[in-house]
Amino acid sequence: MRSILMCSALLATVLTVAGCNQASSPAAVQDEVAKAHQSANEQNAKADQQEAKVDAKADATASEADQKADQKMAGAAYDTAVTEAEGNHKIATARCEAMSGDAQKACKDKADADLASAKANAKVERAKHE
Question: Looking at the 3D structure of the chain, how many domains does it have?
């Protein structure tokens, strides 16, 4: 009895496996193809949405990095302009020492005014990038 059951189970398995290689009806194939297209379209739409999110985040990150870089460059340009202005001020005031009286005072006042103007211009340029 046991061997009959085993033989029956084996025969059922063989028939089932043999049936897997049979061609499907055109309607079934068309239905499966339509389902595959729909599934692929849904997956593509999800991938496109994910790509758009990543692109937007990357653009925002890049924009933020560009802004920070611009601020750092503006700060460095400000420091350079102020250092140059201070150097020019030292040179100008040293030249003023060759003068005397009112001429010396006027020379130093002009050097001080030029330094203040250069620093103000540097601040304005830096503020444009903040």
Answer: 1
- The whole domain housing 126 covers 49-130
> What confidence tens digit (pLDDT) does each residue in 12-28 have?
554 454 555 677 888 88
C-alpha distances in Å from residue 66, one per residue of 22, 33, 75, 77, 126: 62, 48, 14, 16, 15
Task: Write the DSSP assignment of 47-99 as a string of letters.
Answer: HHHHHHHHHHHHHHHHHHHHHHHHHHHHHHHHHHHHHHHHHHHHHHHHHHTTS
pTM of the model: 0.56
Residues 36, 38, 41, 43, CA torsion sign: negative
> Is there a domain that residue 62 lies in?
yes
| 99: in domain | yes
Distance CA 80, CA 72 (A): 12
> By C-alpha distance, which of 71, 77, 74, 82 is closest to 120?
82
